[in-house]
Design a protein that fits this description.
By secondary structure, this protein is mainly alpha-helical. The chain has 2 domains: 44 residues, no CATH class; 199 residues, AhpD-like (Up-down Bundle). Helices cover 55% and strands 9% of the residues. Strands 1-2-3 form a 3-stranded antiparallel beta sheet, covered by helices on one side. 30% of the residues are buried.
């Protein structure tokens, strides 16, 4: 595409549209209105190419994730010896699975379809529908419902808290989620090992500092800590969500550690490249 027809120009004085050159990716175009006519100010090719590349990488990662999961384990299709029984001996307690309700059966089927596997934490709760259904409902509300926090940020809170608690299950499972959502394998590793070593924004650093303080020394949290979050740009609703996610994973960490719940082996190989 070498030009833009007048009819294609936007109706604002300075505006942006996404257009496509022949046989090329969509690109960001800035128009400026002068003397009653629009002129093409600038093409921003790299911005959109980067976005399309990221989207394509995420889609490819999802396809690979489902493919790997359906092969039954890590990237090579076979779990390493160190975790070979983690999809068999899921918990250290002898709890007989209960019959799934229609709702939970549909949910397990959805996990299998979208992820390629059912997370072991769900199977661990499946001995009692009265435990499983509230767990699923609260998890989905905290991690997937609309929020001022992105899904990635909520996963990063989960990892920061789990790192403080040294929870094997959650570090493996949610460390993988950070890698997948961010498209950055190194970020997932940094969050697992020590979020303070990651090059985070001031907003993110304030969020994780609060979540970890709430984890390690909850009795020391006071108004000054909440005010730091407000100064970092968080609303009071955001502070509730940060606190709720941190609190949920403190509970989940302790339950997983107490019962030696083992993460699905597929998590170890996800989004490593």
């Amino acid at each position: 595409m070498t030009g833009v027809k007048p009819a294609e120009a936007p109706r604002a004085r300075n505006a942006v549209r996404w257009l496509r050159r022949a046989d090329g990716p969509r690109e960001r175009v800035v128009f400026v209105k002068a003397h009653g006519r629009y002129r093409l100010a600038q093409w921003h090719k790299e911005v959109m190419v980067t976005q399309e590349t990221t989207s394509a990488a995420r889609a490819a990662s999802k396809r690979k994730r489902v493919s790997v999961a359906r092969k039954g384990g890590a990237a090579g299709g076979k779990a390493p010896p160190s975790v070979a029984r983690d999809d068999i001996d899921i918990v250290a307690l002898n709890l007989k699975p209960a019959k799934l309700t229609a709702t939970m059966r549909a949910y397990f089927d959805k996990c299998q379809e979208r992820l390629g596997f059912v997370p072991n934490v769900l199977k661990a709760h499946a001995f009692d529908m009265g435990k499983l259904e509230p767990f699923v409902a609260m998890y989905n509300d905290l991690m997937l419902a609309p929020s001022g926090l992105s899904k990635l940020e909520r996963e990063m809170i989960a990892v920061a808290v789990s790192s403080q608690n040294r929870c094997y299950y959650c570090l493996v499972a949610h460390g993988a989620a950070v890698r997948v959502l961010s498209g950055d394998p190194a970020l997932g590793e940094l969050m697992v090992m020590n979020y303070r070593a990651a090059r985070l924004s001031k907003r993110q650093r304030a969020m994780f500092d609060f979540a970890v303080k709430l984890t390690a020394e909850p009795w020391t949290v006071e108004e000054g800590d909440r005010e730091k979050l407000r100064r970092a740009g968080f609303s009071d609703r955001d502070i509730w969500d940060i606190s709720a996610v941190a609190a949920f994973f403190n509970m989940s960490n302790r339950l997983a550690s107490a019962t030696d719940t083992r993460p699905n082996t597929v998590y170890h190989g996800l989004a490593r490249t």
